[in-house]
Amino acid sequence: MRIATGPVPRITRSTNYKWWVFASVALGLYLTVTDQSGVNIALPRIAQHFGADLPAVQWIALGFTLSTSVMFMPVGRLSDIFGRTQVFMLGFAVFVAAALLGGSAVAFPVLIAAKILQGVGVAGIEANGMAMVADIFPEKERGKAIGLYMSIIGAGAVGGPVIGGTLVSLLGWRSIFAVSAGVGVVALALAAVVLRRGVSVENRQPAGTNFDWTGAGLSAIVLICFLLSITNGHKLGWYSPAIMAGFGIAAAALALFIWWEGKASAPMLDLSFFRSKVFTLGVSARFLSFLGGSAVYFLMPFYLVQGLDFEPSKAGLLMVPGSACIAFWGPFSGRLSDRIGTRWLTVAGMALCSIGMLMFARLDVDSSAWEIVVSIIVEGTGIGLFSSPNTSAIMTAIDSRKFSVASAFLNLVRTSAGLSGIAIFTAIVVFTMASQGFEPDLSGVSESGGNDVRLVFIAGMSRAFVVGAAVMVAAMVVSLMRPENPSVLDEG
C-alpha cells in the first residue's frame, strides 16, 4: 500500500531525500514552537481585548498544554498503528483549522477552545517529527539528525517572541493566528509532496493491531488530575481537599494504568521499554533536566523585569543567548555523540547546568547584565550538550517500529516536567515571600513595596535555583549511571 497515489516526485528519488524529510519536519516543529511563544507574548493584548482577568487568560496557555500532554501518547500509538505521515499531516490540518478559529474568535471561550484544539494538532505534529527524523537517518547519523532537530527548537524559542511581538505591535494579536494558519498550509503542502516513502508505511504495526482505549482513558485521567493539581497547588494550598483529591485520583489512575498496560494485548505504552537501562535512565535524566531547567525560563523574566526593573525588550534580549547556545551546541553534541558515544556528553552537559544554576543563585539587585548573560550561556551550553546525545541514546534503545509512541512519551516527559518545575519553584518563591510578610504572589514584585519586596523575591529565587542545581546534579548522576548504548559506538 502506498501513502500517495500518482507519479512519484523527483524529490522522493533524490539521494538527499532524508534532508527533504528533515526540512518538512523542521518547518512543522519551528512553526509550533514559535506559535506557542508568540501567543504567550500576545496574552496581555488578548486580555485587554476580551476584558479577561489573569486567571482566565492563563487558561489559553494551560488549556493548550493540557490538551497536548493528554494527546501525546494516544496520538503516538495511533501513528505507530496507522502510519506517521498520515497522523503528522492530520495534525497540521487540525492546527490550521484551530488557528483560523482562534484568529476569528469573537468570544473568549471560543479562543480557549481553539487553543485546546490546536494542542491536539500539535500533539500529532510533535509526536511524529522526532520519530520520522530518527527513522529516516541511519543509526550512525542519528545523533547529528537529532542535534539539528534540537537546534530548530532553540531557533523557534529565539524567534517566537521576536516574531510574535512584532506582529502584535504592527497588526494586532489576531495576526499571530493568521500567520500560523498561512505557514501551516505551506508546511502541509510540503509534507504532502515529500513524505511519501520510508517514514511511515514500512514502520506500521501489524495489520489488525487494536488501539488501547482503556489505556488512553486512564492516562488522560492521570495527566489531567496531576497537571491541574500541581499547577494550582500554590494557589489553593498543597493540603487543600481539592489538591489532595487530585493527586490521589492521579496516583490511583496511574496504578491502574500500569496494571492494565502490563496485561493489555496491544498496550498504548509498551512497558518493555523500561527493561532497557538506557531507556529508563535516559528518560529519568530527561525529566530531571526539564524539571530543573524550568526555573530559568520561568523565574528569570520576573527577576529581570520586576526584580531589576528592566524593560521587557531588554529582558528578552538577555534571554536570547541561552536559546542560541542550545541551537548551536545541539548539532555539535549530536555529531560528536555519533563518534564518541552519548554518556559522557550528557554528564558534561548536566555538570554545566548545575554550575549555571549556582551562578543564577548568586544574582542580586546589583548584578550586571554581563553576569546574567554569562550565567545564561553556561546553562544553555549545558542543555545543548545534554539534549541531543540523551535523546539519541533513548531512541536507539528501542524498536524503530515504535518510534512514534516513544517520541510522544518523550514529549510528554518534557511538558509534565516543565509544569511540575514551574509549580515547585513558584512554591519556593511564594513561601519565602510569605514568610517575610509579603503578599504570596509573584505579581507583588511589581507592586508598591519599595526595595524590600524585590530583595525578598530575589532571596526566594536564589533558593529556587539552589534546588534547581541539586536537581541538575541528580540528572548528572543518573546520566553517569546510564550504560552506553553499544550500537552507537559499533556503528561509529
UniProtKB/TrEMBL annotation:
Ranges that cross the membrane: 20-44, 56-75, 87-110, 116-134, 146-170, 176-199, 211-230, 236-260, 281-303, 315-332, 344-363, 369-387, 408-435, 455-478
Any one Gene Ontology cellular component term annotated for this protein: plasma membrane
Cell compartments where the protein resides: Cell membrane
CDD domains attached to this UniProt entry: MFS_MMR_MDR_like
Gene3D superfamilies hit by this protein: MFS general substrate transporter like domains, Multidrug resistance protein D
Major localization class: membrane
Keywords: Cell membrane, Membrane, Transmembrane, Transmembrane helix, Transport
Domain Major facilitator superfamily (MFS) profile intervals: 21-486
Keyword Cytoplasm: no
Pfam families the record matches: MFS_1 (PF07690)
Keyword Metal-binding appears in the UniProt entry: no
Protein name per Swiss-Prot or TrEMBL: Riboflavin transporter RibZ
UniProt source species: Geodia barretti
Lineage, uppermost ranks: Eukaryota, Metazoa, Porifera, Demospongiae, Heteroscleromorpha
